[in-house]
Amino acid sequence: MKITVKEFQSQPFVVKASNRNIKKAIKLQLAASKIDDTQDKSMAEVSENTLAFFDEEKAFLCDVLKLNAKQADMFDDLDFKETGDVLGNVISKLLNNSQEAKVSEEPKK
After folding, report:
1. Is the Cβ–Cβ distance between 85 and 55 less than 8 Å?
2. What DSSP string describes 2-61?
3. Of 42, 84, 33, nearest to 61 (Cα)?
4. Residue 106 has what DSSP assignment?
5. Cα separation of 30 and 16, whole Å?
6. pLDDT score recorded for residue 99
7. CA nearest 72: which of 11, 7, 10, 2?
8. Residue-level pLDDT, tens digit, the chain, 109 residues
9. How far apart are CA 51 and CA 32, in angstroms?
10. What pairs with residue 54 in β-bridges?
């Protein structure tokens, strides 16, 4: 599938909706839900988890989109909204494409 991420390049990235990439997307979603759970956590713990999540976001995009070093460095210059939009776009397309593939494989009655 092709996913356009204008923050990194004008041409679309070719991304395979493989089980590996789907699992990475779901793991990132789980990690995001964990940083939202701040109850009974110290400020230091919340900050450490948030910093670790930034690294996970970057690693996810670098791996799934196969970003080169310059593009990977561009991630650090994105603002919070841009980062969320990019991740939301990539994850949504990956997960929706895998669902579409399942539907298309179902036998017609």
Report:
1. no
2. EE--TTT-SSPEE----HHHHHHHHHHHHHHHHHH--TT--HHHHHHHHHHHHHHHHHHH
3. 84
4. S
5. 21
6. 52
7. 7
8. 999 999 999 999 999 999 999 999 999 999 888 888 788 888 898 889 889 999 999 999 999 999 999 999 999 999 999 999 999 999 999 998 755 444 444 554 5
9. 12
10. none
Q: Which two tokens stand for residue 70?
A: 């310059």
Residue 25, amino acid: A
Residue with tokens 């579409």: 100
Residue 71, pLDDT score: 96
- Residue 36 has a pLDDT of 81
Nearest Cα to Cα of residue 65 among 50, 96, 86: 86
